[in-house]
Amino acid sequence: MMNNEAPTAIPSTVLMLTMKASRLKDRDILSKNDPICILYELTGRAQGRPQWVERGRTETIQNCLNPEWTKKIQINYFFEERQSLKFEIYDIDSPMASLSAQDFLGRCECELAEIIGDGGKKTFNLSGLHGNCGTLTVFADEVDEGAKEFAQFWVRGEKLDKKDFFGKSDPFLDIYRIRDDNNRQLAHRTEVIKRNLNPEWKMFEVNVKLLCEGDVNKDFLVECFDYDNDGGLRHDFIGSCSATLNKLVTKEVQRLPLINEKKRQEKGNKYKNSGELIFKNVQIIKQPTFLDFINGGTQLDFTVAVDFTASNGGVTKPTSLHYINPAQPNQYEIGLRAAIDICQHYNNSKIFDVFGFGAKVPPQNFVSPIFSLTLNDNPSVVGVSGVMQAYRNSLNRVQLFGPTNFSPIINEVAKKAAKIISNGSRYQILLILTDGIISDMAKTKQAIISASSLPLSIIIIGVGNDPFESMVELDSDADDHLLTHEGRTAQRDIVQFVPLRNFLSMNGQNVDSERAMALLAKEVRFIFI
Question: What Gene3D superfamilies does this protein map onto (predicted)?
Fold first, then answer.
């Protein structure tokens, strides 16, 4: 997603890439690797200054040498352009540390067209370490960015085989799509339920296109395993079954026996099954699109919050992210204008509430958790020009300080969202522009979780060259798990993070407006779908 080289056209196709690796090198002494896969795309080639830019990363899988990641990475495919990709795999020993502090496991490079031209599936040898590094298989699926259909499953097991000698099994399910070439592709993995032969898994959703290519009469495969913490080499196979969505939704089939072919061959006629899966309920839901909401009359109310902490650099220094250069906008101005240009079209009033945080504010020069960029009691301004004028006026009067606290502004906007009548007519969006690490991470997580039931979403735009690794904790896209803190879990994912460098040209000062609008509009759409 991080592209500095503007394409000549809006992408003709959006792809979802899914990865799995085999026979990774084990670099942990006392356990197996905890691998993550990171995708990069080569940009800047047309300007003669190529660089690898991160597009996305999978979740981390614990103790596994043969990971099948379920987190998909979205990439725009331009069939008329050469798109070079690089995949790197790391063993994540410390989630908060940078990649340079993690153990490298291998890499491969390819052209996106290689994957497409091989039927949407291709296996590559990994390199970068001495000896055999294993392989990486990449699947590419075209995604319809309009209406999305998801299958919701409520499943329990009954009388599953006992696989542990000293205790009951720890069962989980793998759900696979069967491709046209009869290869299978992992679509979903449930949680592990400890020591239970009659487990009931949490409701889960699977994209219908990724499960069965959108064909409700096409079989998909379910495998049940007993989880063993040995690196994914020997999860004990309990049994498998296949089904179609049509039969499950219509309840033509609700109970499916789990069959272990090896046991059936050993026991012959004495073998019945290795337990059963009961599909209590299966339904297909259509998630409304962004246009569905807008066409239905939903108005988006926008609040903007700008980081005025000292880590941005003194405003008089040309290296400052807030430096005012008469000849060109600074990065905050680029980010503000690109975002507001898009957002203003979804609010008839064109009114934005604009705030800052992390500065000493006149006349008392006290540090204010949040302050109005208008420097009065009314934070509202009209349109792009109003936002830009308020930003520049306040920049000349406040003193950059600290800390970088997100929770005050999130709580402030959440109060407004809580007052909205729950009829879908209005929706709050908080747009935060920041340069780096959050100072109040625990309180920010609490604020996000508390706000997750409200008509509110948060878009964070990262300004500057910070790796922004702490933002991964807030954006649930990173690992496909809802944000959790101190025993509380968010009701939904309300945070979307995007680095400004997605839109910047190679000199870091110009932005391709068409590219910025296309990508930021996608981030705005994401909060609804």
Answer: C2 domain (2.60.40.150)
Distance from C-alpha of 203 to C-alpha of 190, rounded to nearest angstrom:
9
Phi, psi dihedrals of residue 19, rounded to the nearest 5°: -125, 150
Cβ atoms of 10 and 512 within 8 Å: the answer is no
Radius of gyration for the alpha carbons in the chain, expressed in angstroms and rounded: 25
Type of residue numbered 235: H
d(CA 73, CA 16): 5
Name the DSSP letter for residue 319. T
What is the largest distance, in Å, between two alpha-carbon atoms of the chain?
88
**CB 5 within 8 Å of CB 515:** no
Cβ atoms of 221 and 240 closer than 8 Å = yes
Sole residue written with tokens 């301004």: 381
Name the residue among 263, 279, 282 with its Cα closest to residue 157. Answer: 279
**How is residue 328 annotated by DSSP?**
B
Long-range contacts of 94-99 (CB under 8 A, 24+ apart): 95/60, 96/469, 96/470, 98/467, 98/469, 99/38, 99/467
E strand residue ranges, 121-179: 121-125, 135-142, 148-158, 171-178
Q: Give the DSSP H/E element, type plus range, for residue 467.
A: none
Structure tokens given for 395: 């920049």
pTM: 0.62
- Quote the CA–CA distance of 251 and 262 in Å, as a whole number: 29
User: Which domains does the chain carry?
Assistant: 13-142 (2.60.40.150), 148-287 (2.60.40.150), 290-526 (3.40.50.410)
Closest CA to 303 of 359, 347, 338: 347
pLDDT in tens, 219-271: 999 999 999 876 545 789 999 999 999 999 999 999 999 999 999 999 999 99
